[in-house]
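> forwarded from #structure-qc
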């Protein structure tokens, strides 16, 4: 029996992993790249969202000018389509990566992790595909 260190005993059953405890060791660097992606996408999202909010809510009359015609005019420019598409994709990937980390940390069973991640990927793809479709096929001349 080992002596307790700072009030903790190391005689706990092996099934009670601490959150963030690695479950598998693999030779790839996926977690490192996922961590880096979170930092860089977060910084880029801050710039994109602050720019979006400034343009949409503060400049040229603010929120009172936001209507269908404003969106139609904005999305007639490829620049704004790419801006909004980048915001959509980065937000989905950034948020999905965060939820994936939470699933890995707290889902105990492999099957539970699998199904939660499957639902996560399906929902992310559905939102990204639908959002991309709307941005690029938006028709300002609705009859």
């Amino acid at each position: 029996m080992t002596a307790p260190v700072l009030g903790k005993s190391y005689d706990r059953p092996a099934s009670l992993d601490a959150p963030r405890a690695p479950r598998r060791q693999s030779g790839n660097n996926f977690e490192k790249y996922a961590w880096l992606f979170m930092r860089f996408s977060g910084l880029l999202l801050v710039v994109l969202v602050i720019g979006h909010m400034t343009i949409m809510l503060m400049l040229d009359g603010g929120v009172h000018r936001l209507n269908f015609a404003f969106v139609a005019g904005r999305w007639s420019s490829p620049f704004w389509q790419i801006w909004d598409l980048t915001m959509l994709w980065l937000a989905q990937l950034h948020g999905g990566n965060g939820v994936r980390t939470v699933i890995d940390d707290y889902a105990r069973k492999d099957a539970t992790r699998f199904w939660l991640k499957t639902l996560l990927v399906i929902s992310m793809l559905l939102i990204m595909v639908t959002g991309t479709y709307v941005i690029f096929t938006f028709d300002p001349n609705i009859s």
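QC bot note: Residues 30-58 form the longest helix (29 residues). The mean pLDDT is 86.
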